[in-house]
Amino acid sequence: MEAVAEVGISPKAAIGFTAGKVWHLLHDQGRMSMTRLIKSVDAPRDLVLQAIGWLAREDKIEIEETSRGRLVWLKEE
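Given the sequence above, the corresponding structure tokens read:
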């Protein structure tokens, strides 16, 4: 998030930009564990979680609770 602040992007814009990164990663890779998704996106953990929330609110992703954690994937359109 520090790099985002340095170039003058608002926090809301940073979340939206990161949501785009998450969407593209899920589009390319398919279903992923929440842990792997967070590690795969080049952004701070909190920002990735906010981006996941953004996509969930827009009804773009599915999240499934399993015995080993959460799985995330794009909704089929």
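The mean pLDDT is 92. Try to locate this feature in the token string yourself.
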